[in-house]
Queue: 4 jobs
Job 1
Amino acid sequence: MTELVEVALAAPPDLSAKRSWRSVKNGLMTTLMVSSAVVVALPLVAVVWAVLVRGLKVSVENFPAFFVEEIPAIARRAGPGMGPAILGTLLVTGAATCIAVPLGVMGAVYLHEYGRNNRFSRLVRFMATVMTGVPSIVMGLFIYLMWTMRFGYSAFGGALALACLMLPVVIGATEQMLKLVPSHLREASYALGISKSRTIVHVVLPAALPGIVSGSLLAVARAAGETAPLLFAVGAANEYNPHLFEEANTALSVQIFGNATSAFVAAQDRAWGAALTLVFLTFLVTFVARAFTARVARRR
Amino acid sequence: MLVADEIGTERRIKPSTAGSVSSPNSTAPGESGPPPSLQRPTANVVFELSDLEVYYSAFRAVSKVTMEILKNEITAFIGPSGCGKTTVLRSFNRMHDVTPGARVAGGLRYRGAELYGPNVSATEVRRRIGMVFQKPNPFPKSIYDNVAFGPRSSGMKAKADLDEVVEKSLRGAALWDEVKDRLKASALGMSGGQQQRLCIARTIAVGPEVVLMDEPCSALDPIATARIEELMRELKSTFTIVIVTHNMQQAARVSDRTAFFTTEIEAKSDRRTGTLVEYDRTTKIFSNPADERTENYISGRFG
């Protein structure tokens, strides 16, 4: 009897993995997920690669000139530049951000903190959702009728159209972020005898800030690439126009559209250069905003 | 402090807003006295509850709570889960105002002033009646800013004043020596016990008269718990403290008076409602309780 027990103890248990249907399934699903990830990444990498290779050619060959000089009036002439379009994109997108982000954030604060589920805020929320689905060309047409027909082409008209497109995104993202702020933070503030408005400004919004910045950035990046509404509202200029409210302006996205559809190789090259510039600008804005948010978050 | 007395004299005469006067004293346990409406507020009664009821929408969570909480004492609320201890505590500083659907009925006076009377500002109430929560909930700010947030909000701007309040409050919460070299560091990097003491410091920085504590030690280890209990005994001379606890030993160790709550099941509707069973000196509750249910609960024979 004792001998038997000893033998049983001496033999180490077999802990090796056994082949089973479960382990086969595991391998199968893992392969599936990895290949999905690759498939998702593939077009992204291809796009960046194409833009980089072709865009770099034209912009590096004429290095500072491409980003500074005015757009040639004769499309078949080779060479720089895209200066006015860069300024135009910054003007239009910047103005649109200045309109849409404060409005959107304040609107979302109302919806989530004050309106809650009353009739009015439900209506606003519904309208915002509907607005997300409005095609940008329709928004451009709307601004064309309401603004451009009366006041003529200007960067501001384009900014209005882009702001209309950005608003629902900013509202939605901000409201989601406000929902995520833990209720115990609000309670902690209320328990100190601090008013609701002060709690929102000093506790809730700072806690939601990184998410609000991310959401707004997404909206900015989307708006910077919009072309259709700008075709209606901004017009097409080849010279620098630093005025927000006067005269036709231009933007990178409009230039990409115009030049890429041109029959001349020189113009097509400029379109690639403009595309690279736009990607780079978007990346730059995202990077700066993230760095800023990280610094604010660290300070707290 | 001056404003408090003004509110007190103003509202003292106003009748309770709730109409629940059907059976004022029939079930009042423990201490009996004249009906609340005839009682003149004595100097050291902080909270005066008469037939307090709290509803969450249609559900009556707490009913028939009548008691007086005295100044510069530690009053402990004990009882099984779901018996309404926390619900009663949260009605003391109008925290129910933020919960949609929550409603408080019956008489609840603070130093003679009707807490739920018209024109009473919840903000003003909470500035005088602070609260420490079950889970330490420091703001995601620096240690200094956590403590300075309350005073800043009430208009204190000078750095010297703020520095003084922060140091005094952190000393009051027995935290100063541990954090004085890293006041600018984030409060989220502290241990749980330190965070809870920071929350106490943050509460006393506003200069409240009462500190409500909702199971302040339930997320802490025994050493941190002992420090908080020690702190409570020190704070007692300055503040009135009401503490909800699941830990009967804690109630026995720190409190002067203990209120035992339990859940009653209404016969006809099968609805559960929390109610006050017995309220007395802690020594009496733990040695010679008057109610059988209290006896069963404190001796661990609760069914």
Job 2
Amino acid sequence: MVWFRRKDEAAEAKGKKVVIAEGLWIKCDSCKEIVYRAEVERAGRVCPKCRYAFRITAHERIAHLIDHGTFEERDTAVVPGDPLGFKDTKRYRDRVRAARDKTGTTEAVVTGVGRLAGFPVVLAAFEFAYLGGSMGSAVGEKLTRMIELAIAKHLPVIIVSASGGARMQEGILSLMQMAKTSAALQRLGEQGLPFISLLTDPTTGGVTASFAMLGDVILAEPRALIGFAGPRVIAETIRQPLPEGFQRSEFLLEHGQLDLIVERGQLRDTLRRLLAFFADQPTSG
Amino acid sequence: MPDTLDFEEPLLELETRIAELQALDDPAQREEIGKLEERLQRLRQKVFSSLTAWQTTQVARHPRRPHTRDFCKLLFEDFIELHGDRLFGDDPAIVAGLARFENQSVVVIGHQKGRETREKISRNFGMPHPEGYRKALRLMQLAEKFRKPIITFIDTPGAYPGIAAEERGQAEAIARNLREMSALRVPVVAVVTGEGGSGGALAIGVGNRVLMLRYAVYSVISPEGCAAILWGDAAKASEAAEIMKITATDLQRLGVIDEVVPEPAGGAHRDWDVTALNLKAVLADHLRALRGKTEAALVNERYERFRRIGAFEEEFRPSA
């Protein structure tokens, strides 16, 4: 192990790409152990050492959870505007274009309808690689439309979050999406329709402080970073080192902030059982 | 005066000159004093009509700016402060209570910054913990139960980013308020009086009407935080403030606030009474307009108000 780590650090020090990450071995983002890539892939992109679930794309998530061939994506045409004409070191419009080229998705969330183990659901999955999964106006609009669709079609809602929070480049309008999506969930609840929130690594900021923490049932993948403020901001504010495991799924479970931690391999079955419960059907296999 | 902002200095110099001349009590100086006072007024108008976003932020954060408890004294009669969330504790960074406004019982909730050092610390600089938001929600539900309108005052750098806050569910507390406020069956008027710091501000800001004092600011992240992320340099806060569009006039244009409440030239900290009178008039107007509405209309209009906010594009896709 020591041999690998040294090589890894040396490569990082030279600012080169870590060669091993592209090969047979990969470094776990959470426990930093070097693990066999094939073993990680076989487990559904899960670290065999610490059970951390690696970040996956929105479409990988959908393929994993939704019955093959049943997903109909919605509102792909709803894309970011540039209400503030925002430009820092780059123009916001250029960042959006680059994110779209990089991820192949038209926003940081993919929404649609499909079936999960036969149960019709409305599902949203965040694409973290698209501007950190941040929520701007178009993300808020897509989520709200999808919740409204669930109300119209009388379907349960599942949102898989992976987001740094509100999108700074759309300023206050991003903040307002927190109120908009939370209000839509209130209406969903009034219709007696369930919302299952799945928190994945990482879920922070304005996404956590709105729809993500409003699940009737809140699930999380193991060792995911989940919090309101980011750990760096907290460390800078309190000028103290943060406790071990702080803001990880296990920490939140211990503090009563979520219902269940579910390993990726069990996720589809857990969701199936929850959907069966809400549909008043037997929840065993 | 230690609380003078740099762009206020030329004004202060003139004020000092006037005060010195007045102290002489010399009738021969009367004309000169009159001229100086005229100049002072013109200069104040000039400085305050063209404040940058960053200067506005400094006015919004001014230590002598009226805070929630000051507004409670200035605007209401018989304010009775109530404490605690009934779950964990009482958060001094949020003040909440019962009051009378224009012969009507109302529930009042607001962030509370401190003014002197000791009070700033005890109020945690107006940065609430989850129990603050839960106290706010408890009082909103009390208001709903007894059919009383709710008035909130927003003035916070943000919800506190700390270990205990995370342990007790800062995100959940804010999220729950957003959801519950959207369905309140009573009128809710929110006023951004000072600093509207992100989710910690919005958590008491889901109103039928959202008003904003002329030199208040409201943003998704503080200018310093934005600058640190964009350029790795919090000192570029003034640039960040400009590009984020955080002033009352910007936010009215973006459809986020309904009305800008005028402040006296020189800012609210220069004249609390005039500020309170302005706010009282605008608040009374909005509460009157909301009073006649049915519960369903209040809930639906509030939903639609936030439902509309946002600016995105919808690409044209010719159907296959």
Job 3
Amino acid sequence: MTVLVALPFLLPLLGAAVTLLISRWPRVQRAASLLTLAAVTANAGLLLAETADGTVISSQAGGWPAPLGITLVADPLSALLVLVSSVVLLIVLLYAIGQDVGGLSRGNPDVFHPVYLVLTAGVGLSFVAGDLFNLFVGFEVTLTASYALITQAPTRERTRASMIYTVVSLISSILFLTGIALVYAATGTVNMADIADRLATVPGDLRNVLGLFFLVVFGIKAAVVPMHFWLPDSYPIAITRISAIFAALLTKVAVYAIIRTQTLLFSRDDITDVLLVFAIVTMLVGILGALVQDDVNRVLSFALVSHIGYMIFGLGLVGVPGGHDDAGVAGLTGVIVYLVHHIVVQATLFLVAGLIRQYVGNTSLRSIRGLASVSPALALFFFLPAMSLAGLPPMSGFVAKLALFQAGLEQGGPLAYAGVAAGVATSVLTLIAIFRIWVRGFWGTPSQAIVAAQSALSSGTGRFGIRWMTATTGLMVATGIAVALLAGPLTEIGTVAARELISGEAYRTAVMSDSVVAP
Amino acid sequence: MAQDDERVPAVPGPPDDWEAPRERWLSTVVRPAFGPRSMLLEVVARMLIPAILVFSVYLLVAGHNRPGGGFAGGLVASMAFVLRYVAGGRYELAAGIPARPPVILALGLLLSGGTAGAPLLFGEPILRTHTWHFELPVFGEVHLLSALFFEIGVYLIVVGLVLSVVAALGARMEAEEEETRAWGEGEVR
């Protein structure tokens, strides 16, 4: 059973090595890549099946006991996120393969496949890391892979964007490392479960500073306003498969890190107000930014920033002294459901933007027109996740937002009410931003260039490529609908995970003394 | 003035029967990356590289108990290849490495990942080290750890990575520079 905890990063690393060795045979390379990700997904499914009831599984690398060695640990939250991210990675890989086979991408598959799997390994390691330093390693593996991926099919703009991205990521990594050093100086350990115990003896002010420090570190990576400026300048520029994965996963890994550190390590101190203020500002600034963009990808990037605010809002409902524990659990459950919903929906929307790019050549709102008559499937595949993003029933976004708003109202207090109001306003504004894309891009008569591009794409290998890409986008849309249909079980797992996160008992016991702790 | 020059050469050359040294210190026709070739550097490279490589292997093996390890060993070994590149240019670098850098990197990753994951097959945690003791004729008692294979993998990854960097930032740019110069000369002619 403890094997399952090690495989989310070990399998993709081995897969990366194999795909690097066989890069001369593109078909074999694609097959190896797919096989690896399928195995990772299956493993994640098993891991979630084991942990869904609140069981926490830990494994000590090399057999070194807990506070000394490298700890890998999976609780319901990590297992759920590993599963969702590997499903999304798998579908985006299918999309990318279709694009490559159809000759519709200028990316370099020799580089893409190994580095993509390394990115998978980094994401997996971040989710199962049981100590701060390995969390850092997981982030770095992910980021190093992302530096290589963001400059796929290099152009002047991509190189410029990747410079911003690299510099900001490096700065935040240096801060992260500094934070680990400070925590180590204060507690003498980097194992998260151990830190959680030892922080009790650390003076409250110092603990507060450390907590806020980590909030800033992960806030940069998660693009929380006012640390979001780099995201809309870098994500939209990369090629489709890359921006889809970045938008879906990289910021969510940081949100996961915020949840983990703020619940497990810094739960004794009340920074609820700070979180709620960050959340409200992030929601509003992000979506107001989205309203004035004239490029689909940039609208989606600003919407991404804005919706990070919802997750921070839910986390801000936890741990209010004198507040309702139930409201905290409900808020955290909402965050977990929101994470799952948002990973899938963001990936879908960026894949749709990639299809638009195939037809139009770019994603500027000035040049797209009449896409609904060019490709009805494309219109449908944009419409469904967009409605989900705005939070209209019966889509997954509605379920997630409803859970968060209910928790906010239950918690009460001026900031919680303000947060709910900002959340509702953001939903409405998201709807407006989506309708701008819909009205300008999908209605009307398509221009000559778009019709020409469509007829060019309806023959030869391009036809196979575009059909395959549309089909995989449809698969991602179906995944989004499945999230909505499975909202019941998902909320159950979310509640179990939220209770587990707030008490932290099982996690600490599993890491420090026993390898498997049932609830 | 011209007649004076004919009678007394400005720089006395070697006698006609004098033979220039023909030893090749490096394995290819030397074309340093930039500037003229330096015999001194070639000789030093020729003498130092084997010693550096042996030292890197020492670091690799010693790393279990003393300072060193796969990472340090790999860095030292890649310095040998960098020296060879600086002295002899990109053809010399290509002649000196056993496989393409990505292949070295991939093999290292496979070896490291495989060693890290092998204990999982026996129900042990990842990265668990296994120890073998046995007698060898010359070495005496040998204390072999499975961690050594992990370290060898790291060594190969580091060498592959540094060589990739040298290939991308050195050799590739050098080739582009040569193309530009050849094109420039063609224009002049």
Job 4
Amino acid sequence: MSTIPATGRTEADRRSSARKRPSLWRQSLRRLMKNKLAVSGLVFLAFMFLICFLGPLFSPYADNKINTTIMNHAPYAKHWLGTDLLGRDVLTRLLQAGRISLTVGITSMLLSVFIGSLLGAIAGYYRGVVDQVILRFADLLLTVPNLPILFIFGALLSEWKVPTEYRMYMVMLMLSFVGWPGLARLIRGQMLSLREREFMQAATVLGLRDRRKLVHHLLPNLFPLIIVVATLNIGGAILSESVLSFFGLGVMPPTPTWGNMIDAANTIIDFEKHPWLWIPPGVSIFLTVIAINIFGDGLRDVLDPKQKK
Amino acid sequence: MPNVIEVDNLSTLFETEEGTVKAVDGVSFRVREGETVCIVGESGCGKSVTAMSIMGLVEGTSGKVTGDRVGFGDRDLLRIDRNELRTIRGHEIAMIFQEPMTSLNPVLTIGEQLMEPPREHLRMSRKAARQQAIKLIERVGIPRAEQIFASYPHELSGGMLQRIMIAMAISCGPKLLIADEPTTALDVTIQAQILDMLRELKEETGMSILLITHDLGVVAEMADYVIVMYSGKIVEEGEVSELFAHPRHPYTQGLLRSKPILGQRLERLYSIPGQVPDPLSLTPSCYFHDRCAHCLDICTRREPELKTLEGGQKVACWLYETAEVEARG
């Protein structure tokens, strides 16, 4: 290879080389791609999303179509995963349930991450009274285990006779309500250490506004942490939703979720004689949550190497 | 020439568990337009705290700044509200730090950070700020400005980062640049380049520089006026040539003696015996008395005041107040 004479380069050349520099994100992406386990988790999740959101469109049994002539039928050519008590196609319901479970998981994650990082960042940045108020409230929620709180909310929803179609949204709100304190604490801790860093003093000396320091200087430093926690949170939210729905306190049938599909099969007869009713949703929950956790761990290794172990 | 900044009787106290530490103790000085003033002293003498107090950076720590006045134009930086102080910082007074490696945000590109002050203070458009940033990168002597503009801090060396810090500091055309040990973390050749550049920029823009250092070589090269601090107090100050030629205070004399001389090989460099006194147990005395070869009786009992000698040099030492000393025994 010959060396390129510096004088031979045009302005346009230099501009394009300036653009081509790999950004921090691209470097992280490249490192992530080297982690086989994380990539397999990601591939599985992508597959799950695709079939859950697109699959039902191709199903001839959409919209909970009831067919009483083939109740509780074992899997066969026309119904790959058999039919349930009302003769509905289990595969179609499984995919529709996945749509709901994933949506609930992601939406409640987004909401709890938004609340958690906002409150955590404010608490860590301003400290003092604001910090104390936010922190004590977070502690209050953290001292009580999440499930009892969720059960109480679920029971209240049933008591108030919230229409079934709104219950999904209420479940999202409930999950994000119990989900934010952990993240808020993490973000606050990071914030406390970041705000003392020298570059923040430099930003102060440059006369930047608080909001600019918070949003433009500190938040990007928190992104790796937020992304990792957010990813892992989706798994937790899907699990909580399943548990709630299993106990009949989450999303109500006929809207299918993986949790209430298992719940629908919780008699000894279904358990022994109709395993196609509960194995598919169980396996779906298991694999999806595992895939999310594997992917989340991979992300953590790439974005936040300090947190390893 | 008019004064850019006038510091009157500035004191900074830190509350610690063992008691109150007076990090800066009644310091007064001024920086004139286009002048370079150096504050020298060893570690812990309060030189950095002085700079931080002027910039209002002590607020929010356990420290407290008191003082008569820090005059900047017709404003008093000690009694100005937070928002107005913010509009002065980075705009009219800029500051650079010792560690360029940690003074830039690691997740933002050089360009983004370089565009911030002009966009904030001068309300420059993104495009104009970008053009100015590229020009500034070239001005501080870094080639391939376009490429550097898009780089992250970790891709640059310490010397380059300090140049970037200087570019940021001068981006809004400040009247005063406070440089807190700007070359301490850099190697010697880079040090010289950075100092040359600072001097050139000063000539070009007419700004004043308040340079904080412990390096007498830097002082000799840069300063117009020198202030020597010891234990939070000014012990001697004067024009640079005068002070180097005739150091009056025993501490200044010691400092100058401990400087290596080019071409002279010594077994051991001279060092001032003893150590800096514990700031928690200071009694009214000359704080240098237990390390001083010329210590008098009065030195252990009373603080000397900063007195102007003929020729304009100022010194706080009982040796130069012999008449008074004899009178009081």
